[in-house]
Specification:
Layout (H helix, E strand, L loop, with lengths): L1 E6 L6 H7 L2 E3 L2 E4 L2 E4 L6 H8 L6 E3 L3 H9 L5 E6 L7 H10 L7 E5 L4 H16 L4 H12 L3 E5 L3 H6 L5 H10 L1 E7 L6 E8 L1 H14 L6 E7 L3 H14 L4 E6 L2 H7 L4 E7 L1
Parallel strand pairs: 1-2, 1-6, 6-7, 11-12
Antiparallel strand pairs: 3-4, 3-5, 8-9, 8-13, 9-10, 11-13
Length: 278
């Protein structure tokens, strides 16, 4: 039997993942001297309340021992761990290390999705579907590779401090941006390992019109998934949806709340737009 495992970059809690046919290890967040497993011990709304208290949060990938323990639950099965992008987290490397600790490590396959959140969620859901349809691990890995190559992510922060603190935005850019009310548009590099500034626009509508135009140029339409993920700004996400639908009306859209670990990365109020060919 093939077992699909992943992590909470998929925006699935442990319970939701089991119900959907796979298992996840949880990323953790720390604030005010306490550490929480996201979804299992703290949800996004609770985390946002803690942020309002002024604490400086940090996040961390699932512990190697926890991942190894997850693998050990299926000693007779082939395991496929689909992780979030290597470079944006240590999750992929931890998954490999955990596999080497297991007696049945030669039956554990680790796939670097080179993406996160929405497209990562989609890849895991498809893998579960392919397992149910009788695909082999080799076939699934091949299909995942093809799908992963079509993924693209855009991140629009509101609070520059979180990106600057995480080393993803220089102090100068963040300072000028906040003074001039400019909004940077962040994207992943081609290898998926870093986030870089792809453009700067003034004002909300200009930012998402730029992203909508970029999706249009990439040929996004019928047969594509567009994920809009937000850090506790559902109303803003709805406005983004309206703008993007003007550019790619035939695409399939989903809106999700970001998990605590990813709120730390983009900051409260941020919105991510992500695509993948279905």
């Amino acid at each position: 039997m093939i077992r699909i495992v992943s992590d909470t970059s998929t925006m699935y809690s442990s319970k939701e993942a089991i119900e959907a046919g796979f298992a996840v290890s949880a990323l953790s967040v720390s604030i005010d001297g306490k550490t929480y497993r996201e979804y299992d011990e703290i949800n996004s709304e609770q985390f946002m309340q803690l942020l309002q208290g002024g604490g400086i949060p940090t996040s961390s990938q699932p512990a190697i021992g926890e991942v190894a323990a997850l693998y050990e639950q299926y000693p007779e099965d082939e395991i496929l761990n689909i992780t979030m992008a290597q470079g944006l987290s240590g999750t992929y490397d931890s998954a490999l290390t955990a596999a080497r600790l297991c007696d049945h490590g030669d039956h554990i396959h680790v796939f670097n999705s080179r993406t996160l959140c929405g497209p990562h969620r989609y890849l895991v859901e498809k893998a579960v579907q392919w397992v149910r349809e009788g695909a082999t691990v080799r076939e699934i890995l091949h299909r995942l590779e093809q799908k992963a190559q079509t993924a693209k992510s855009y991140l629009v922060p509101v609070d520059f401090e979180y990106l600057r603190r995480g080393g993803r935005l220089s102090h100068l850019v963040s300072h000028v941006g906040q003074i001039a009310r400019l909004m940077p548009i962040m994207t992943q590099t081609e290898d998926g390992k870093r986030i870089t500034v792809s453009g700067i626009r003034r004002g909300f509508s200009h930012v998402f019109q730029y992203i909508g135009g970029s999706l249009q140029k990439r040929g996004v339409g019928k047969g594509w998934k567009v994920y809009i993920s937000h850090a506790s700004c559902k109303e803003t996400a709805g406005k983004v949806l309206d703008i993007l639908r003007e550019f790619v009306p035939d695409a399939e859209f989903e809106i999700h709340q970001l998990s605590p670990a990813f709120i730390i990365q983009g900051g409260p109020g941020c919105v991510a737009v992500q695509i993948i060919e279905a």
